[in-house]
Amino acid sequence: MPDSLVIKNLNASIGERPILKDFSLTVPKGEVHAIMGPNGTGKSTLSKVLAGHPDYSVQSGSALLDGEEILGLEPDVVARAGLFLAFQYPSEIPGVTIANFIRAAIVARQAKGAPFDAKAYYTELYAKMDALKMDRKFTARFVNEGFSGGEKKRCEILQLLMIKPKYAVLDETDSGLDIDALRIVSEGVNRMRGPDTGFLVITHYQRLLEYIIPDRVHIMWDGRIVHSGGKELAIELEAKGYDWVKTELASA
Amino acid sequence: MAEIDENLAQREAIDVDRSKGDFKYEESYAFDAGVGLSASVVDYISKVKDEEPWIREFRQKSLKIFEGLPMPTHWATTDLDNIKFDKIRYYLAKGQKAVRTWEEVPDDVKKTFERLGIPESERKFLAGVEAQFDSEAVYSRMKEELEKLGVIFCGPTDGLRDHPEIFRKWFGKVIPAGDNKFAALNSAVFSGGSFIYIPKGVKVAQPLQAYFRINAENFGQFERTLIIADEGSEVTYMEGCTAPKFETATLHSAVVELVALKGAKIQYITVQNWSANVFNLVTKRGVAEEGAEVRWIDCNIGSRLTMKYPGVVLRGKGARGEVLSIALANDGQHQDTGAKMIHAADDTTSNIIAKSISVGSGRSTYRGLVHIPKTLKNCRNNTECDALLINEHSRTDTYPAISVRGQKNSVQHEASVSKVSAEQIFYMMQRGLSEGEAMSLAVNGFVNDLVKEFPMEYSVELKRLIELQMEGSVG
User: Fold this and answer.
1) Nearest-CA neighbor of B143 among B206, B228, B235, B230?
2) Cα–Cα distance between B320 and B263 in angstroms, integer?
3) How far apart are CA B300 and CA A125, in angstroms?
4) I want to staple B225 with a disulfide (CB 3.0 to 4.6 A). Which of A238, B170, B193, B438 is the partner?
5) Mean pLDDT of the region A117-124
6) Mean pLDDT score, A85-91
7) If we measure between CA atoms, which residue out of B156, B154, B151, B130 comes closest to residue B45?
8) Range of the domain at A35
9) b/e burial code for range B141-171 (CB count within 10 A of at least 16 → b)
């Protein structure tokens, strides 16, 4: 499928330990898919494997981004192909300002030697920071250094809005956010929703999905999707709890 | 497949760029002291330069000191034993007189400097340029208005001949021949370098620059620089250096003496980018009189082994000394650098900020010396050394020696070692940066606060050099 992120029978492990087990999922452009599941079920591993993290090894399966295989590619090649990962725990980069970091990410996507329009860049950057209610002084701060949990997540969403990937994987973006920050971050994501972008929202709680209304909800258990449904599935899961998954869905 | 081809093409492009100085045009030399070191080689150099007897004696005495001193391998690396003094050529020149326009520079030599961008920089932002090719300067020129103000900018041979009254007073006084084995060697065979005098109250706004180029194989370059800033004057001097990469070891051993008289300011900037076969063993020291300031900005990117500890003797009340140092040790390189601050008067302050980056099997060593005797008061020193390790095999060592006595003196020392983690690299690569770009961004971030202190042109150049080094270190 050209306009989709198609993951098929993916088996991946960290060291000797298998984590993803015949995992399959398709996220078409223009849709928001949510993956819910208890801790330790492989949600974050999925995001890392897709992004090409060197600690994980893929045994079999495929992940096609608009028809192109991304498994086995270097992380930067995957990123430039159009996959963005909003990290659960973003790294600090001392001495590198947010403005310079995002600029480097954008320049990395330009043709080699192409001129960089600094004025247009700052205009866009400031507009998006305003939307995320970020102080403009933030551009001069070093990436994630000394940031609160909420500031880190806002910074991830700012990068998402500036880089404009084809597919965005949001890994537990709601963790560490208070309700106001959650609303602001969600608004940022919602503004990007449209026919050109597919979203995969990974979350432990239903709370985030009150703000980012998903088209599809998938429940993950022991390395694979065990149940899929519409947005109401998230509410059902919240009401019944993960024990329900364990006893009814996982055994099926 | 297209992706792979593109990567290859990119890497090739980087290799060409990375070895900016790695090229050589064949040369013939009218003056050649032959191979090996002896009293007759020293005499040959002195004779070619038509020197006064006192300087010839100084050279011969220095040679004896050199021969009598052991290699400092009891504290420094044993790699020093790989220098074969009897295989080195100590003097190679086409002539002794530097010309004053680029047009007059011999075509082949001019091509070298044009390729290194020297004439272009001169036009853009420099007050004066001297370009040394092996043993002698081939080009030397300063803006006319500075000449009218009495500024002197020439080589030591011209300095000795034309300005003996200033030269002799200070030459070898800040760094005597017996200071260390390599200072003694330089004192015996020195040739080229700069002699600068800034008259009272003259503030030279734009930098004076010297460019040192080694072109010949098995060659030793021994330039000698003496800068005297008279009362209330100010000057910034910048030196750059490159050499083609040879199979055999090349030696560069300079001596640089700075004298800042009452209220004067000297800023000395080095961007050292020798090829990876060069032993770079340099002695640099300044004296700061009352209210004067000496500031060393020292960036070591190239060479096989660099040993260099710029120092300031704070001799007058209220004098200030500063060393800002960046060292990048890539695979197979050892940057053994640091700073010395000798407080010798009340109310003197010194500041040392040293940052080192070790990549691959690269090794960086910081050696610091801060001395404040108990007879002094209100002296302050601040020392910060930060090391960044890029991967498992890289190595960093810190040897600070601080001797502070007396009641009203203070010293502050901070040291840190950090590492670029795999997670940081992954994070940056997930944003689309290649591994090399990610590393160079991390390294530039690490040196960022220090580089901000540098004049703009040099911070841009340094950033570019770091990028080239980091690009070349992966894949």
Assistant:
1) B206
2) 10
3) 36
4) B193
5) 94
6) 95
7) B156
8) 4-249
9) bbbeebeeeebbbbbbbbbbeeeeebbeebb
Facing B426 at nearest CB: one of A53, A77, A105: A53
Neighbours of B276 (CB within 10 A): 16
Amino acid at site B45: I
Instruction: Read off the tokens for A91.
Output: 């790294």
The confidence score (pLDDT) of residue B128 equals: 85
- pLDDT level of residue B6 (50, 70, 90 thresholds): very low
Best B389, B428, B453 residue to mutate vs chain A (most A CBs within 10 Å): B428
Among B418, B421, B430, which would you mutate to test the A interface (most chain A Cβ atoms within 10 Å of its Cβ)? Answer: B430
What's A227's domain CATH number? 3.40.50.300
Per the CB < 8 A criterion, the answer to whether A52 and A74 are in contact is: yes
Residue ranges with strand state E in B332-434: 334-343, 349-358, 363-372, 380-389, 395-404, 410-419
- Mean pLDDT score of chain A, rounded to an integer? 93
Rounded to 5, what percent of chain B is helix, strand, coil?
30, 35, 35
Q: B389 vs B144, B323, B417, CA distance in Å? A: 47, 22, 7
Q: What is the pLDDT of residue B30?
A: 83
Chain A residues whose beta carbon lies within 8 Å of the beta carbon of residue B448:
95-96
Q: Is the pLDDT of residue B77 over 70?
A: yes
> pTM for the complete prediction?
0.86
Range in B364-373, B409-418, B424-433 with the lowest mean pLDDT: B409-418
Burial class (CB in 10 A: 0-12, 13-18, 19+), A48: buried
What values do phi and psi take at A185, rounded to 5? -60, -45
C-beta atoms of A79 and B426 within 8 A: no
Strand order in the sheet with A32-36: A83-86, A167-171, A198-203, A32-36, A216-221, A224-229
Q: Helices (DSSP H) in B91-205: which residue ranges?
A: 107-115, 118-125, 144-148, 156-162, 164-170, 181-189
* Burial class of B247 by CB neighbour count within 10 A (0 to 12, 13 to 18, 19+): exposed
DSSP string, A64-84: EETTEE-TTS-HHHHHHHTEE
CA torsion through residues B101, B107, B112, B114, sign: positive
Q: Count of alpha carbons within 13 Å of A73, Cβ hemisphere only?
A: 26
Give dist(CA B281, CA B263) in Å, integer: 31
Residues B144-153: contacts with CB under 8 Å, at least 24 apart: B146/B202, B146/B204, B149/B199, B149/B202, B150/B197, B150/B199, B150/B202, B151/B196, B151/B197, B151/B198, B151/B199, B151/B202, B151/B204, B152/B195, B152/B196, B152/B197, B153/B128, B153/B194, B153/B195, B153/B196, B153/B208
Per the structure, the count of domains in chain A is 1
Rounded CA gap, A104 and A96, in Å?
Answer: 10
Question: Which pLDDT score is estimated for A75?
Answer: 98
Place of tokens 């300044």: B286
- The answer to whether B7 faces chain A, any CB pair under 8 Å, is no
pLDDT surpassing 90 at residue B249? no
Distance CA B313, CA B257 (A): 11
B381, β-bridge pairs: B350, B411
